[in-house]
Amino acid sequence: MAELVLYSSALFFFIFLTLIVRKIGKKNKKDEETPCNMPHGPRKLPIIGNIHNMLSSLPHRKLRDMALKYGPLMHLQLGEVSTIVISSAECAKELMKTHDINFATRPKVLAIDVVSYNCTNIAFSPYGNYWRQLRKICTLELLSLKRVNSYQPIREEEFTNLVKRIDAHKGSPINLTENVLSTIYTIVSRAAFGKKCKDHDNFISVITKITKVASGFYIGDFFPSAVWLQHITGMRHKLERVHQEADQIMENIVNEHKEAKSKTKDHEREATDLVDVLIQYEDGSKQDFFLTRDNIKAIILDIFGGGGETSSTTIDWAMAEMMKDSRVMKKAQAEVREVFNMKGRVDENYLNELKYLNLVVKETLRLHPPTPLLLPRECGEACEIHGLHIPAKSKVIVNAWAIGRDPNSWTEPERFYPERFIDSNIDYKGRNFEFIPFGAGRRMCPGSTFGFRTIELGLAMLLYHFDWKFPSGMTGEELNMGEVFGITMRRKDDLYLVPSPYHPLPVT
């Protein structure tokens, strides 16, 4: 959901709120006690603070514009919630490196609380022993380099299936956005579940519903003491309804795996997919840590939802940018075809030879980070960043989109120019704070390696097998590059292109 959710009951909400001004007012009197060296920000209104400043369908752009006026370390009072917005590499480094452990937990958000089984997934669980154990399982068993490499046959097979579907529409416009999204979800599904989920289409539909409901800003999160808002706006009911749909699908998935395991001897069935690995922590196979059924379902939803959206969105943006700039498209295609023409097919083992395509992906992630506003953090203890006071319990938002377009870090920041990364050591792994599409520090996205590999292979297949043009004589200048803000930042319009086969399909 792109805009701040105000619902039809918004007027009643504000009328009713005036009746409890004294209660809310007491909470807002804390403003009078805050130190004078707080980060600057726009003037606050009574009760709502700066909520009105967030009324935008593209809050990452709105926050960037405000940061240009108030600075890269900015304070907003969103209802009862003190909020810090970071918009520069220097401030991001101090947050996610110098003070990383102090900002390692997540604030409570109603939508995430409901759909992620009380915040027990990897992305939103509070910092502590449970999260550390999840992270360990994730990095060592779920998304390790060895495990990511083991999914190579799945990636290659599903992208080959995508090429076949596209080839069937050669010469005619095809919705590339929709087809890539379906392919990515199939890859994630097979990696997570060992096969394409039988409820595949329903699961994608539910994930889309969750994304729409959970995206943007919800008014109740700004007034956590007013629990009644969850009910009067209907938000909790809406979230619980879509959560029940997802829960039933995931329950079926886990039960199928447990049934398959029960029919084989322990030594005959190894943990071949992510669900198998997680089940070992429920049935006692692993003695050092225990997961409940809901914990497992929270992790599945986390990996399936995040993994699909991030990769497909990035491929979509990359193809759109290359279609707008034929120079980049020709250069990337020439490289892919030079590397793989002798092999007769795209082989993931040789992706490291695609130096220019790697630059294209990096430049796409710089201009269009999948999550423009990184998942929020919470300040554990009061501290200082750049000499300015950050109160305890403050919510912290890092504007990765603004940082990727900061003229203090990048020359011609609005230009799509992959060559800027030539002879550069800047990468996406959280060491370079001017480029943090997957975050940094302890709460960096653990699936970045899986995602980057999937993105590169998908683009290589599309560029190797097809030449592309716009439908009906359309030009690159006419391509709508507008955004839709959400959990990920999609293009506003689906990308329709006309494929012309260049290289014969693999013989099967």
TrEMBL record:
<dbReference type="GO" id="GO:0020037">
    <property type="term" value="F:heme binding"/>
</dbReference>
<keyword id="KW-0479">Metal-binding</keyword>
<feature type="transmembrane region" description="Helical">
    <location>
        <begin position="6"/>
        <end position="25"/>
    </location>
</feature>
<dbReference type="GO" id="GO:0016705">
    <property type="term" value="F:oxidoreductase activity, acting on paired donors, with incorporation or reduction of molecular oxygen"/>
</dbReference>
<dbReference type="InterPro" id="IPR001128">
    <property type="entry name" value="Cyt_P450"/>
</dbReference>
<protein>
    <submittedName>
        <fullName>Cytochrome P450</fullName>
    </submittedName>
</protein>
<keyword id="KW-1133">Transmembrane helix</keyword>
<keyword id="KW-0472">Membrane</keyword>
<keyword id="KW-0503">Monooxygenase</keyword>
<feature type="binding site" description="axial binding residue">
    <location>
        <position position="445"/>
    </location>
    <ligand>
        <name>heme</name>
    </ligand>
</feature>
<feature type="coiled-coil region">
    <location>
        <begin position="239"/>
        <end position="270"/>
    </location>
</feature>
<keyword id="KW-0175">Coiled coil</keyword>
<dbReference type="InterPro" id="IPR017972">
    <property type="entry name" value="Cyt_P450_CS"/>
</dbReference>
<keyword id="KW-0560">Oxidoreductase</keyword>
<dbReference type="GO" id="GO:0004497">
    <property type="term" value="F:monooxygenase activity"/>
</dbReference>
<dbReference type="Pfam" id="PF00067">
    <property type="entry name" value="p450"/>
</dbReference>
<dbReference type="GO" id="GO:0005506">
    <property type="term" value="F:iron ion binding"/>
</dbReference>
<keyword id="KW-0408">Iron</keyword>
<keyword id="KW-0349">Heme</keyword>
<keyword id="KW-0812">Transmembrane</keyword>
<comment type="similarity">
    <text>Belongs to the cytochrome P450 family.</text>
</comment>
<dbReference type="InterPro" id="IPR002401">
    <property type="entry name" value="Cyt_P450_E_grp-I"/>
</dbReference>
<dbReference type="InterPro" id="IPR036396">
    <property type="entry name" value="Cyt_P450_sf"/>
</dbReference>
